[in-house]
Amino acid sequence: MDARIQQSVVANLRNRPVPLEVGPFVIGTDPTTSSPSINYATPRPGAAVTAADVAALVAAFRAAGRKPRLEYVTSCAPGLEALLTGAGFVVEARHTYLLCVPGTLRTPPALDHVRLHEPATDTERAALVGAQNEAFGGDPVASGADVARLRRQQGAGGVAVMAVTDGGTCAGGGGAAPPAGGVSEVAGIAVRTPYRRRGLAGAITADVTRRLFDVGVEVAWLEASGADSWRVYERVGYRPAGGRLYIALS
Length: 250
Description:
alpha+beta; 7 helices; 2 domains; three-stranded antiparallel beta sheet; Aminopeptidase; GNAT_dom
C-alpha cells in the first residue's frame, strides 16, 4: 500500500502547472504561489537515488526560485533521508498517514442547519478557500490564483466540498486530489472557529470521501495534524497505515 500512496503523490505533483522531472524525483511547482505546501518534490517509489541526484534536485529548485523541500512515504525511499540530511536538509515533521476504503467508511448523522455541497461558481470557491485559510490561521480573503487553483483541481477530477449554514455562511470545507490509480489524497479539512465542536469536520471528511468512492476510488488517504483531528478521522473510518517525512533545505 505504501507504494500506491507514494505513486499518488507523484501523480499529484505531475498535475501542478509546471511539473519538473529531475532524475528519480518529481517537483511540482506553481508559478502563482511560493507556498512550500504546494511547491515540493517527491521520489518515484522504489527509484535508486544518489548524492548526485540530490544535488541536481537542489539545483532545479534554485533555478525555479523555490525552497528545496520534499514530502514522501519513507518506506518507498529508505536511504533518501540520510542523503538529504547529508546535503543539509532538516526534518520538518514525521507523520502517520491514514487510509479509508469503501468498507470502512462511516457516515455520521446529518447536521442541522448546515448543507454540504460542491462549489460550482468562483464566488463559492472563494468562500470555501477563504474559510479554509481562516481556519488555518491565514488570510480569509481568497486570491484569484487560489480560486483558479481550486477550479483547476475540480476540472481535473478532484473533489471540493463546502459547508454552508442556513444563513449562507461558509463554515468550512475540504477536498481531495484528482484520483490516480484508484487512490486520492483528502486534504484541507477545515472548520472556522465559531462552528467547531459540532461534528462538522467529520461530516466534511466523510462527504469528501464518499464522493471519491462514488466515482470508483478504491483508497482515500490523509494526514492528521494533531490528536483532535486524528480522532475525527478515525470516527469516520480512517485507520493508520504508514509513515511520511517532510524535509527541507534551510
